Amino acid sequence: YVVKDNRDSYHYAIKLVAQLLRNDGSKALVADDSVLSRTLMKQMLEKQLFDVRDAQDGEQALQILKDDPEIKLLLTDYAMPTMDGFELVKAVRNFRGRDDLAIIGLSGAGKHGLSARFIKYGANDFLTKPFMNEEFHCRVMQTMEQLALIADIKESAYRDHLTGLHNRRYFYQYAEKLLKNVDQENVLALLDIDFFKNVNDQFGHEAGDQALKQVSSFLKTKFDDFTIARIGGEEFAVVLHNMDLAKAESRLNTFREQLASHAFSINGEPYSLTMSIGMTQFQKVSLTAAMRIADKALYQAKQQDRNCLVK
Ligand code: GH3
Ligand code: MG
Ligand code: MG
Ligand code: MG
């Protein structure tokens, strides 16, 4: 239905299929006081495989959006009773960002400046009614494609390329957010591989990289319910949220022992690695302070023969 009779549209068709697969089951919301318009847009979005809800005015739409954070796309008319499209967009942008929920504003032709105002209030795009089906599909597709691109970029900005773990940037942002929740007991642990330089010296940097990957997967499987980040070369941070110090200590010590007795494989040969751990309570302090304390504890662990935990 987008490609139709246009032979230039071959590449577009391929992009469309990719986008359709991505849309599949994504939630969308249509807000329009005209039943006819609403039904038409709903049907068109369903053709793009969206799971569509609808609302007959801004207030109803706002409520639906508040109740369902999974909605990825909002199409909103401008003129609606009780709350118009502008008010709706402004209100929604207080809790859903432009790269998290796509909004396309719509209104009748001949009203100058509506498109600009929609966009100023936070809409991603605009459509004039009546629209051609093809334009509708193209705009929805392009808007969703941009959202997906931003999500991909964000994801890669927060990941460590070698190990696939979260990176330092992610860790700092996540930890800052976590610290705002003062009611929760959290523990921060810094883990550093012991004598890792030997691996590089003995087997080469490439083998060192492989070892880092193996240690990372090991960490991932043992702490899959917590946030782990690679914050330095062979240094990792784990936040054990909602956990008291004693429980975290025992869990980290179990991990440390399991790691020490695990046979890693470096250049096909079994190799053992150990880690030293510094940990601290992670509540009602600044991130800088917590990091300093955990780092000091880690330093002490290194002084005490390594392969141990200091709090
Ligand atoms: P310690 O027990 O005191 O921590 O000793 P160490 O050898 O682990 O510590 P040091 O800080 O002296 O050396 C860390 C080594 O980790 C040096 C560096 O070459 C290596 N390293 C850091 N990042 C990477 C990486 O991405 N790949 C590889 N192959 N090696 C890395
Ligand atoms: Mg209307
Ligand atoms: Mg080290
Ligand atoms: Mg280190």
TrEMBL record:
It comes from the Bacteria. Keywords: Phosphoprotein. This is diguanylate cyclase. Its EC number is 2.7.7.65. It catalyses: 2 GTP = 3',3'-c-di-GMP + 2 diphosphate. Residues 184-311 form the GGDEF domain. The keyword Phosphoprotein applies. The modification 4-aspartylphosphate is found at D77. Residues 27-144 form the Response regulatory domain. The keyword Phosphoprotein applies. It comes from Pseudoalteromonas gelatinilytica. It is an enzyme of class 2 (transferase).
